[in-house]
Amino acid sequence: MIRSETAASFIKKTSCGAVLALAALCLSLSTIAQTPDTAPKGKTMANHATGTFEVKLAPQNDGKPEDSPIGRMLIDKQIHGDLEATTKGQMLAFSTEVKGSAGYVAMERVTGTLHGRTGTFVLQHSATMNRGVPQLSITVVPDSGTGQLTGLTGTFDIQIAAGKHSYTFDYTLPEAQ
User: Fold this and answer.
1) Fold assignment, 44-174
2) CA angle at residue 159 from 48 to 54, to 5 degrees?
């Protein structure tokens, strides 16, 4: 249990911006919890897409690289296969002094055609490497699909072999009307 004077001391030591950000997050979460389900209704179809992609990462240094321990990069992908698309996004990454330990988060907007259906959607990345052991999660941001990809949900997995990138994309999409 936290004593009230300890909580008050914490708030005084915490920047006003951080407190406001936390308050805004709590308010937005309570609003989200009360929002009715507006997902497209009807039958959905589960699918599996595969293919390859090329990626370009462009470091974005807002000053000297040593000014921040966190690197920021722009993402530019060309995706081929069952998903024919381009992406634009941003990544934040950090490497520790321990070899093989690092992490990154990223958001990228995908524009293209998935098994014949055209639109856009957003992928959210979260990855860590713990002393060489990777853990990667890439998911479609809920309700980010547009056009014929409205209602898209799914997980995107990346494989790298011999310097070549490939993907598998397990997704669900409402049946075409």
Assistant:
1) AOC barrel-like (2.40.350)
2) 95
Report yes or no on whether pTM surpasses 0.90: no
Rounded distance, CA 123 to CA 92, Å? 14
pLDDT tens, position by position, 147-176 = 999 999 999 999 999 999 999 999 999 987
- Mean pLDDT on 116-120: 97
112: left (phi over 0), alpha (psi -120 to 50) or beta: left
Q: What are phi and psi of 102, to 5 degrees?
A: -165, 175
Place of tokens 């300890």: 6
Check: CB of residue 106 under 8 Å from CB of residue 138. Answer: no
Long-range contacts of 60-65 (CB under 8 A, 24+ apart): none
Rg (CA), the chain: 20
Burial class (CB in 10 A: 0-12, 13-18, 19+), 41: exposed
| Contact status, residue 129 vs residue 104, Cβ threshold 8 Å | no
Domain locations in the chain as residue ranges: 4-34, 44-174
